[in-house]
Each structure stands twice: as structure tokens, then as C-alpha cells.
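Mods, move this if it's the wrong board.
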Amino acid sequence: MSQLEEELAFQLDAVGIPYEREYKFCPGRRWRADFYIKPMILVEVEGLVQPWRKSRHTTNDGYSDDCEKYSEAQILRFNVLRFTQKHVKSGWALQTIERLIDVKREWGEG
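Not the wrong board. C-alpha cells:
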């Protein structure tokens, strides 16, 4: 788990939002989401975006694979939220998760 994931987990714990880590959401695929939050919310914490460092997520193939993963999650009716370091550290990620949970409750989905 990354430091950012640990920080978001701490924030979720602090406000009492239950979650699962490394959630396998697609039968037959090895894809995992960083967090699963009921009802049907997948959360991805994206690593640092640094133009001088390559990671799997910043290569053409890696980015394409991520697009496939997130598209499949949408087809399976998950809401996918993606956050950066800025979002987690500022608390915006947590606020956004809380808003989505509230909206889903209002729509009778949670």
C-alpha cells in the first residue's frame, strides 16, 4: 500500500466510512481497485505524476490498460473515483467520497 492510500484509509477510518482494500471487482480479470466502498464505489489513488519518472501508468500501454480497467468497472455499474496526492492531502478526496455516498443514498442506492 502506498503512503497516499494509507493516508486516505486513515481519513476514511476517522469519519467511519467502511471500505475494503485491494478489491477484486471483475471476475476473470486480475484487476483490483485500491478501495471499495458500498454501494458500488471504487476508489483509485493515483501515484505522483512526475514527468521525469516513468511508471506503468504513464506509458502508452499502461494508460491504455487503465482505461480498459476503468471502462469495465463502469460497465459493471461501479462509480469510479480517481484521486491524486493533492486531492488526498487537501481532504477533497474524502469530501468527494462523502458526497457520492450521500447522493447514492438520496437516489435509493445505498
